[in-house]
C-alpha cells in the first residue's frame, strides 16, 4: 500500500481522496476505463440477495442443509473415517480497536452537542458492548461461538453414531488439532463436547497446535504471500479503487449521519480529528470512511455476541449502506485471501499443505497406519478462504483480471457463504467392496461436489472414488 506508517480500519483511505474511477457496487467496473455495462443486471442480484444480512464473514453459523436430506451412500459402502477443517466460532472483537475508536468519536460529538436523536442511543449501546469486553476479554469465543461448534460436533456424531460407538469399543481415537490461537482451541473443545454428548466413550486425543498446517498465512515459508500483502501494486490499486469509490464514500457518510450531525461529519471529513486506539495504538480514525468502518465492524460482530447482551446495532446502519460495507469487506478478502487476480495463485497456493493433509489422513486410514476414526482441525478465516479456492468450492473460484474490479454483479464471492463463523469442510470416507473407497464432502454441512473435472461414482451423486479424487487433485 502507499502508506504503511499508519493503519486505518480495514485499509480505508480518506473519503475525500476520491479517484476518478467510480466504483458502483453491483456493477462490473473496469479499473482502467471506468466503463460498465449495466444492461439487465440488477434484478437477478436483488433476488439472490433478498435475504442477506450483510454481516459478511462475521455472519453467525447455521448448517446449509438439513441432514435428513443427505444422500444415502452407495450400496455396499459403510463409513469408516471422518475429517474436517473448521473456522473458529463467533467471537468477541479481536482487539481493543473498533469499539474504542467509535467511543472516542461518539464522546467528542456528545461533548460538542453534535449527536442526532439516534446518536444519543448509540453511546449506551456501545458502552454496554465495551463492558462485556472488559469482563470477557478480546479475541475469545462467545457463547454463541461455543454453541455453534458444540452443535456441529453433535450433528457429526449423530450422523456417524454407529461408527463412533464401534470406534469407542475398539479403542480408536478422534484426533483434534488447532492453530493454537485461543478461539480455535476453544472451538475444538466445544466441538469435542458435542461429540461426547452423543458418544461419551469416544476417546479424543488433543494433539495440540500445528501452526504450519492451520496458521500457514503467517508462516515464514509463505513470505512471498506476506510480501504480496505489503507491496503488490495490483492489490494496492484494487483496494484503493474500492475504498475511494463514490459509492463507498456515500454509504460511509450516510452511516455517520445517522448518529452525528452533518456539521460534525463535515469536521471529520475536513481532517479535524485523529483518534488512535488505546489497544495496540496502531489504528487511526481520522476521516469519514475509517469512522464508518468502525461502526460497520460493531454491526458485524454484535450478532455473534447475542449470548452476552441484547444489542441492536442494525438500527444504526441502513440496509443499503450495510450492503455497500459488506461489499467492501468482501472485496478485501477476495483480493487478500480468496481467488484474487487471473492466473495468479499467490493468495491460495499456500493451502496446498492442508489439502495434502486431507489426502494423507485418508490414505493413512486406508493403509492401516493410523488407528483413528477421525481427524478434526480448527483454524481461522485466513485458512478457510484459500482452502475453499484450492478445493474449487462454489463461490470461491472466479478470479478477476487486473483491469477489472471485483463486483457483486459479476462474481459470486460472498463472505457469508464462503466463510461465515464456524465455517467447515468435512470429508467422510466410506469403505466398499474390493478395497474401494468413496468420499463425500460437506461444505458448511451441505453435500457439495468436488471441483470441476472430478467424476462422482454416480452421475449427479455426491460420492467420489478416492482414487478419482487423487487423480483430479493431482495427488500421487
TrEMBL record:
InterPro entries per record: His_Pase_clade-2 (IPR000560), His_PPase_superfam (IPR029033)
Record EC number: 3.1.3.62, 3.1.3.80
Record's subcellular location: Membrane
Segment forming the signal sequence: 1-36
Catalytically driven reaction(s): 1D-myo-inositol 1,2,4,5,6-pentakisphosphate + H2O = 1D-myo-inositol 1,2,5,6-tetrakisphosphate + phosphate; (2R)-2,3-bisphosphoglycerate + H2O = (2R)-2-phosphoglycerate + phosphate; 1D-myo-inositol hexakisphosphate + H2O = 1D-myo-inositol 1,2,4,5,6-pentakisphosphate + phosphate; 1D-myo-inositol 1,2,5,6-tetrakisphosphate + H2O = 1D-myo-inositol 1,2,6-trisphosphate + phosphate
Keywords: Hydrolase, Membrane, Signal
Family: Belongs to the histidine acid phosphatase family. MINPP1 subfamily.
The name this protein goes by in its record: Multiple inositol polyphosphate phosphatase 1
Amino acid at each position: 500500500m502507499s502508506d504503511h506508517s499508519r493503519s486505518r480500519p480495514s485499509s480505508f483511505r480518506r473519503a475525500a481522496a476520491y479517484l476518478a474511477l467510480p466504483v458502483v457496487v453491483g456493477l462490473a467496473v473496469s479499473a482502467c476505463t471506468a466503463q460498465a455495462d449495466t444492461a439487465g443486471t440488477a434484478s437477478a442480484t436483488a433476488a439472490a440477495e433478498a435475504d442477506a444480512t450483510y454481516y459478511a464473514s462475521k455472519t453467525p453459523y447455521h448448517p446449509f442443509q438439513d441432514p435428513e436430506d443427505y444422500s444415502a451412500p452407495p450400496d455396499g459402502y459403510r463409513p469408516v473415517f471422518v475429517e474436517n477443517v473448521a473456522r473458529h466460532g463467533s467471537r468477541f472483537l479481536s482487539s481493543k480497536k473498533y469499539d474504542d475508536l467509535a467511543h472516542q468519536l461518539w464522546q467528542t460529538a456528545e461533548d460538542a452537542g453534535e449527536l442526532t436523536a439516534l446518536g444519543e442511543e448509540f453511546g449506551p449501546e456501545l458502552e454496554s458492548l465495551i463492558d462485556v469486553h472488559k469482563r470477557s476479554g478480546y479475541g475469545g469465543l462467545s457463547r454463541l461461538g461455543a454453541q455453534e461448534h458444540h452443535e456441529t460436533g453433535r450433528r457429526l456424531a449423530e450422523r456417524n453414531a454407529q461408527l463412533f460407538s464401534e470406534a469407542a469399543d475398539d479403542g480408536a481415537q478422534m484426533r483434534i488439532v488447532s492453530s493454537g490461537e485461543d478461539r480455535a482451541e476453544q472451538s475444538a473443545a466445544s466441538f469435542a463436547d458435542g461429540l461426547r454428548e452423543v458418544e461419551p466413550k469416544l476417546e479424543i486425543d488433543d494433539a495440540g497446535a500445528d501452526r504450519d498446517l492451520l496458521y500457514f498465512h503467517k508462516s515464514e515459508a509463505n513470505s512471498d504471500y506476506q510480501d504480496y500483502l505489503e507491496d503488490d501494486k495490483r492489490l494496492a490499486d484494487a483496494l484503493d479503487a474500492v475504498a475511494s469509490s463514490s459509492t463507498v464514500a456515500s454509504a460511509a457518510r450516510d452511516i455517520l449521519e445517522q448518529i452525528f450531525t452533518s456539521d460534525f461529519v463535515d469536521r471529520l471529513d475536513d481532517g479535524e480529528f485523529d483518534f488512535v486506539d488505546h489497544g495496540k495504538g496502531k489504528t487511526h480514525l481520522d476521516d469519514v470512511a475509517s469512522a464508518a468502518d468502525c461502526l460497520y465492524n460493531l454491526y458485524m460482530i454484535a450478532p455473534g455476541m447475542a449470548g452476552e447482551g441484547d444489542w441492536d446495532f442494525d438500527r444504526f446502519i441502513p440496509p443499503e449502506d450495510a450492503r455497500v460495507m459488506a461489499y467492501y469487506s468482501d472485496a478485501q478478502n477476495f483480493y487478500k485471501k480468496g481467488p484474487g487476480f487471473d492466473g495468479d495463485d499467490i493468495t491460495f497456493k499456500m493451502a496446498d499443505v492442508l489439502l495434502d493433509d486431507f489426502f494423507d489422513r485418508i490414505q493413512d486410514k486406508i493403509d492401516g497406519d493410523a488407528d483413528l476414526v477421525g481427524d478434526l482441525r480448527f483454524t481461522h478465516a485466513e485458512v478457510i478462504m484459500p482452502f475453499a479456492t484450492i478445493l474449487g468450492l462454489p463461490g470461491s473460484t472466479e478470479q478477476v483480471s487486473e483491469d477489472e474490479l471485483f463486483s457483486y454483479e459479476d462474481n459470486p464471492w460472498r463472505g457469508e457463504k464462503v466463510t461465515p463463523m464456524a465455517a467447515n469442510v468435512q470429508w467422510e470416507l466410506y469403505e466398499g467392496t474390493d478395497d474401494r473407497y468413496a468420499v463425500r464432502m460437506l461444505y458448511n454441512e451441505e453435500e457439495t461436489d468436488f471441483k470441476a473435472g472430478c467424476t462422482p461414482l454416480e452421475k449427479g451423486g455426491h460420492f467420489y472414488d478416492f482414487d478419482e479424487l487423487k487423480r483430479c487433485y493431482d495427488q500421487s
